[in-house]
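User: Can you help me understand a structure? I only have the sequence.
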Amino acid sequence: MHQKIFVLLLTMLPALANAQLKDWAEKINNKVKNKATARIERKIDQAIDSTVDVIEGKKQPVKKNKPVQESISDTSVTGKKLYVKYDFIPGEEVIYSNDFTTDNMGELPTGWNSNGTGAVVTLDAFENKWMQLYQNTAYLTDNTASFTENCTVEFDLLLRRTNPKAPFPELTWGVLASGSLSPGDNVLLKSYAATFATEMNMQPSENSNASVHLQTLANGTAYLKTDIKRRAARIQTFNEPIHVAIQVQKERLRIWFNEEKLYDLPKAIVAGANINQLYFIVKRYGGPEEEVGYAISNIKIAKGLPDTRHKLVEEGRFSTTGIRFNVNSSVLLPESNGVLREIAAVLTKNPEMKINIIGHTDSNGDEAANLELSEKRAGSVKQTLMGDYSIDAARMLTEGAGEQKPVSDNNTKEGRANNRRVEFVKL
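Assistant: Let's start by predicting it. Here is the structure, written out as tokens:
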């Protein structure tokens, strides 16, 4: 009897199993459908909530990341791509330097003159200090030295804006010769063109009104006017630093915004003009100060006209402050390309030449750390010459000297700027 029951169960098992499997499959299928439906509904709810938040102003829509631009160099060395077209080379000796590091926050920089107000500030997303310029105000730096007939001027300019609808006031900046007056005299705040001045007028905007216009004034009258107001893409880019560079070679004047050369004027400077001041003027009629305005930083003025080929080929040594790095870093800044390209050109034309690249720092900070930093900076220069200009690695040695071989007084801003340099020595 038991055997018959056992046989009967064996014959029924497949049928029972199939029935149970069908039941399980149906349950699983229903669960999948329910889960998928719930997930879709959840995503729809999230999308609706997000849209409502944007409408109510609770948050901004997420922007898709822009494609990363292909850099010339490894980002571990350069951070940002070098300025490919940049052929600016700073003067040989820094005579004025100011990054406002030692100035009191909320005050006009020490020694500067103004007919209004100004303030040293820090800005979100930027490590360094900035000088905020205010409307209806003129500014003169605390420089006292002559720029000489061959000189360069550099500074970082920020078009600061928090309200996209706020209009920018007009900005005027330039260089002047004070004549018989001291470079910081009160008279120059209003009559700055009495002797000589060459200046750029800027009107930032997101539309066709954005323009730059250059003119030179001598003895209070027009010496040169470019007449045509030029459009410049850089003054339609906000909250992003513009590296401004000016080069004077006797009567010739050239101006760059980052790597874009805006002007190359053979007769813009009055012959014999003793340029000795940098000035900024913000006109009125802009939006509220807290919503829109200008800030400047990292001012450098240098005199002299570097001759890379002569110095390196004939004298066997070339030193430059024009190869720049991020603060306390070996990451090259984009404006270093002008000098690097010159060095590469000399090495390419002289294929037998070998060089030693020596990094130098100022005396700020720990001596051992400065030595290590200078070695890394020399290495970054070598890597860039190899990667960007195909200079054979076997032709280049690197060395760090740290703060051990200063060429200027480390107790002054200008001296420290001259000591932060890269030296190329022919082997």
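Now, to help you interpret it: The CA atoms of residues 203 and 225 lie 17 Å apart. The helical segments are 2-55, 75-78, 308-314, 337-349, 367-389, 413-419. Let me know which part you'd like to focus on.
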